């Protein structure tokens, strides 16, 4: 029997139709701003979260990964047969793995033992190859310099390879200038009094800071860094939360664009992301918890009625074995549940 299908055909859907994405990479960006009404009940200011976990790869790093790879494809630096090699603790690697899989490119991600097992599983699911640096840099005791050294070794060994170099590539802050901060400013009519941004490569804080400067916005840019990070301090300490802070000051860091830096420790990050999910039902990662902790540290200094935006970089599912695991938290920090367990906050 022959099934007649001609009558069932419909006109093609225009690629410009609202809500239609031409491939998964075109779904990156335009994440929502969500008003947080319960997590800081004493706050007399408006707090809105830019929820970057809703990017298809699960984090804000989808944006620079797309921008860097698109630029490399346009310029010819990347083509058929190119091997993309990058150092990442997780999210940038996943963003690149997603983009490379879409374009049919081989991707090799250099990681270290602090990379969450969940992130490694996601990377492998996208087809990325994993290169593990097991020992830190002997001079600094940090893994980042060791990872970067390994990237350079691989570039020398693999013909036709390409290094996105998220730590120095101008497309990193450029992506946040043209998308992240543009989206925030457009949604709020240019009224942003405080902007809280987690720092690692410093791409987000630089791109957003340059947008604020170039558009004459009256916005205080607050960088959120980890205690023990070498970005805004020279006091090194052990850090357990991936994706926040760095073992060196990245070339993209521009201190003139930052009005203030707030340092948060590992426990601040854990308590912050636990409170986010307990009170706002937002399951976000450790750096998001750190951003919320920074807002809380400054809340008594923020004027009544101010508009504050907190950029929440990634999702929490990748931290279920660590930050959201009671046994893991008890092992490393003891009984600290009182930091996030409180009476429910009712909406007015």
What can you tell me about this protein's structure?
This protein is an alpha/beta fold. It has 2 domains: 24-55 and 173-332, Rossmann fold (3-Layer(aba) Sandwich); 62-162, Rossmann fold, CATH 3.40.50.1100. It is 33% helix and 14% strand. It contains 9 helices and 10 strands. The protein has helices at 62-75, 91-103, 117-125, 143-157, 171-187, 203-214, 266-280, 286-298, 326-333; strands at 33-35, 46-51, 83-87, 106-111, 129-132, 161-162, 194-198, 220-226, 260-264, 307-312. The strands form 2 sheets. Strands 1-2-10-7-8-9 form a 6-stranded mixed sheet. It has a 4-stranded parallel sheet with strand order 5-4-3-6, with helices on both faces. The chain is globular.
Helices and strands, with pairings:
Layout: E1 33-35, E2 46-51, H1 62-75, E3 83-87, H2 91-103, E4 106-111, H3 117-125, E5 129-132, H4 143-157, E6 161-162, H5 171-187, E7 194-198, H6 203-214, E8 220-226, E9 260-264, H7 266-280, H8 286-298, E10 307-312, H9 326-333
Parallel strand pairs: 2-10, 3-4, 3-6, 4-5, 7-8, 7-10, 8-9
Antiparallel strand pairs: 1-2
């Amino acid at each position: 029997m022959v099934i007649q299908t001609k009558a069932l055909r419909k006109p093609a859907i225009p690629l410009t139709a609202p809500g239609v994405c031409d491939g998964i990479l075109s779904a990156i960006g335009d994440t929502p701003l969500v008003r947080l009404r319960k997590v800081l009940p004493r706050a007399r200011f408006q707090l809105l979260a830019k929820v970057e976990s809703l990017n298809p790869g699960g984090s804000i790093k989808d944006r620079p990964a797309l921008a860097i790879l698109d630029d490399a494809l346009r310029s010819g630096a990347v083509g058929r047969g190119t091997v993309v090699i990058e150092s990442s603790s997780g999210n940038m690697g996943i963003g690149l793995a997603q983009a490379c899989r879409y374009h049919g490119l081989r991707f090799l991600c250099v990681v270290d033992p602090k990379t969450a097992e969940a992130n490694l599983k996601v990377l492998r699911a996208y087809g990325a190859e994993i290169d593990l640096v097991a020992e830190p840099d002997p001079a600094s005791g940090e893994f980042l310099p060791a990872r970067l050294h390994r990237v350079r070794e691989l570039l020398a060994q693999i013909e036709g390879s390409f290094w996105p170099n998220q730590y120095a590539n101008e497309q990193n802050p450029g992506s946040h200038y043209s998308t992240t901060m543009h989206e925030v400013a457009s949604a709020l009519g240019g009224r942003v009094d405080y902007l809280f941004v987690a720092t690692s490569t410093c791409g987000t804080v630089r791109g957003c800071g340059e947008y604020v400067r170039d558009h004459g916005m009256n916005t205080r840019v607050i960088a959120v860094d980890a205690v023990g990070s070498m970005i805004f301090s020279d006091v090194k300490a052990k850090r357990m939360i991936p994706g926040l802070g760095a073992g060196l000051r990245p070339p993209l860091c521009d201190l003139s664009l930052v009005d203030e830096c707030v340092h948060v420790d590992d426990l601040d990050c854990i308590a912050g992301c636990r409170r986010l999910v307990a009170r706002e039902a937002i399951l976000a990662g450790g750096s998001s918890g750190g951003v919320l902790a920074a807002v809380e540290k400054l809340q008594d200094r923020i004027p009544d009625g101010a508009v504050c935006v907190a950029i929440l970089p990634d999702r929490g599912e990748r931290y279920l074995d660590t930050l959201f695991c009671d046994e893991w938290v008890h092992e490393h920090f003891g009984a600290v549940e009182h930091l996030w367990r409180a009476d429910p906050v009712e909406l007015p």
